[in-house]
Amino acid sequence: MTFVVNESCIRCKIMDCVDVCPVDCFYEGENMLVIHPDECIDCGVCVPECPVDAIQPDTEPGLEKWLSLNAEYAKIWPNITVKKAPPPDSKEWEGKPDKLPYFSPNPGAGD
Ligand code: SF4
Ligand code: F3S
Fold first, then answer.
1. For the region Disordered, what residue ranges are annotated (predicted)?
2. Which among 6, 38, 41, 63 is the best mutation to test ligand 1's pocket, defined by most ligand atoms within 8 Å of the CB?
3. Please, which of 46, 52, 77, 97 could form a disulfide with 8 given CB 3.0 to 4.6 Å?
4. Average pLDDT, the chain
């Protein structure tokens, strides 16, 4: 198994998660992060760090498309290991449903 970042992260991108990951397996897109499923050691430490509950184990039902998205973009986005400032409008996107249309495939800046 692995942990995956789901749609709650889109445009919130709070980044508290990256500071605690012992294996630095978060990768940065323009408006969300993903976890590399082959690098995650399933420790679960990042889960309570995310204020919008965007990190779940892939054993939860309905996460197949998010596991695919994490795996696909972790290969091409840059690694991020240190928290940066969230987007200025991050709070406005907390808890909004159906954010997939806002997903950006563009990479973030990374560390
Ligand atoms: Fe990193 Fe652990 Fe979270 Fe996996 S579960 S992304 S290893 S902190
Ligand atoms: Fe996203 Fe939550 Fe991390 S919003 S960037 S998964 S702290």
1. 83-111
2. 41
3. 52
4. 97
- Cβ contacts of 25 within 8 Å, gap of 6 or more: 35, 36, 39, 40, 74
C-beta of residue 79 within 8 angstroms of C-beta of residue 111: yes
**Does residue 106 lie in a domain region?**
no
Domain that holds residue 46: 3-82
Q: Does residue 54 sit within a domain?
A: yes
Q: How far is the CA of 33 from the centre of ligand 2 (A)?
A: 7
Among all ligands shown, which has an atom nearest to the Cα of 55? Answer: 2
- Whether pTM > 0.90 for this model: the answer is yes
Rg of the Cα atoms in the chain: 12
pLDDT, position 85: 97
In a domain, 88, yes or no: no
How many domains is the chain partitioned into structurally?
1
Region 35-55 average pLDDT = 98
